[in-house]
Design a protein that fits this description.
Blueprint: E1 8-9, H1 11-22, H2 28-37, E2 44-46, E3 49-53, H3 54-64, H4 72-77
Antiparallel strand pairs: 1-3, 2-3
Helix pairs in contact: 1-3
């Protein structure tokens, strides 16, 4: 996909980038919902068109991913 060579992406491309680059499956509708209620990656707008920068998508994915654990008990201990 050439989207990762572009500085900004639309929602459909951003969802594909997150999956291809980080293995994080996020639906386009989920990105749209998070743009409304919060909790998603940073967005800039060109008019009414939302655009996602690759560095913002990378930072958001890194923030959401947990540290590696060997069991669910380790995950809950943090």
């Amino acid at each position: 996909m050439t989207a990762n060579l572009r500085p900004r992406m639309r929602r459909k491309e951003a969802a594909g980038y997150l999956f291809e680059t980080h293995g994080v499956p996020v639906a386009v509708a989920t990105l749209a919902k998070m743009a409304t209620v919060g909790g998603g990656p940073s967005i800039t707008y060109f008019g009414r068109i939302p655009l996602y920068a690759t560095e913002d998508l990378d930072a958001w994915a890194a923030e959401k991913l947990s540290r590696p654990v060997r069991s669910t008990a380790e995950r809950n201990a943090s």
